[in-house]
Structure formats: C-alpha cells, structure tokens
Recover the amino acids of this structure.
C-alpha cells in the first residue's frame, strides 16, 4: 500500500525535543543567517528550511518547523505560512527521492503526460504517492525553467532532460541502486543521464 503526500500532521512535544541541527548543519545555517541584518533574519527562512528539510528526512514536520522558528526567533505560524506556500517543501513524509515531473507547456507538448504514466506504471504508484519501499515519491510541477530540453524531471538538485522511457528507467534504476535521500541542497549532484 502506498502512502499519500497530503494530510494533516500533529505537533508532538516529545518529538520536538529530539529535533536539533547537527554541528555541520548548524554551521551552514549560521552562515546563511550571517548574510542578513539581524532585523531581517526572517529573510533567511527559505534557505534554512531547505537545510532543515535535508537534515530531517526530506520533509518538514510540525516539530521541525517549530524548531526552525526557534532558531530564527520568529513565530511558528510564520514558518508554516512559508513552508505551506512553496511546493519545494514537503509537509508530509516523502520517499528518499522526490520525482518532480514538469507538466507545463513545453513539457506537456513533448510528452510529459506519457512520462508520468510511464513512471506511475514502473513504480506502481500514482502522482502524490510514495512507493512501498520509501524510495520514491511522484509529484508534478509547473515550469522548472528547462523548457528547451523538454520533457524533463527534477530529483533533488538534479535536472534530467530530453527524457525518453529508456532514459527514465535508467535514471530511476540509478537512484534506487544508490539508495540515498536526494535534496535541493545536494552539492554532489550530477546530471549524467
Ligand atoms: S515547460 Fe517544462 S521546464 Fe518549462
């Protein structure tokens, strides 16, 4: 049974106590914060949320958002408002690799719908669902800025372009064999397929 990516999560005081950036992530967060004047610290929220999402399992739980609010000394609701607005933030648990299939004009004209159907069949999930093994979540996205190389998907920081079914199979097989969580903050990403 696959799980849906939509739903309401509840704040858990006990879990909140366990949420804390490790030293490396905190150093990155402090560097981000240092780019903004203290009275504008809220402007650091987007990049800090990316670090938090990468650090805490690929999604932003209510406890994680509460923690980020405490780090930036802003209200938890301010974090939630931002996190719930942008599609790059996941508010429910997701697979290690979130596949975002662009479905806007160029990609649509070049076969995005067929690519979506192909991925759904290959992974045995529908858009918005996560595979049983927790490896993949399938989402659709609006224009990801790679229209000239449509159709395309994004997985973490990687773009995969000029897709064919064969290429999609190779990409997904590679991610599965690596078994790693992919994040927007990855610095080691390669668009090799
Ligand atoms: S329409 Fe797909 S990247 Fe622009």
């Amino acid at each position: 049974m696959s799980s849906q990516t939509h739903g309401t999560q509840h704040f858990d005081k006990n879990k909140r106590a366990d949420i804390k950036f490790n030293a490396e992530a905190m150093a990155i967060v402090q560097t981000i914060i240092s780019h903004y004047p203290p009275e504008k610290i809220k402007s650091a929220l987007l990049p800090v949320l990316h670090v938090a999402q990468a650090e805490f399992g690929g999604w932003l739980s209510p406890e994680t958002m509460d923690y980020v609010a405490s780090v930036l000394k802003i209200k938890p609701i301010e974090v939630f408002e931002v996190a719930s607005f942008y599609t790059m933030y996941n508010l429910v648990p997701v697979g290690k690799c979130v596949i975002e299939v662009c479905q806007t004009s160029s990609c649509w004209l070049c076969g995005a719908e067929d690519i979506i159907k192909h991925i759904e069949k290959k992974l045995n999930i529908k858009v918005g669902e996560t595979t049983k093994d927790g490896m993949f979540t399938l989402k659709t996205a609006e224009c990801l800025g790679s229209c000239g190389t449509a159709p395309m998907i994004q997985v973490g920081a990687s773009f995969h372009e000029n897709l064919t079914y064969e290429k999609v199979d190779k990409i997904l097989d590679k991610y599965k064999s690596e078994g790693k969580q992919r994040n927007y903050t990855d610095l080691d990403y390669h668009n090799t397929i």
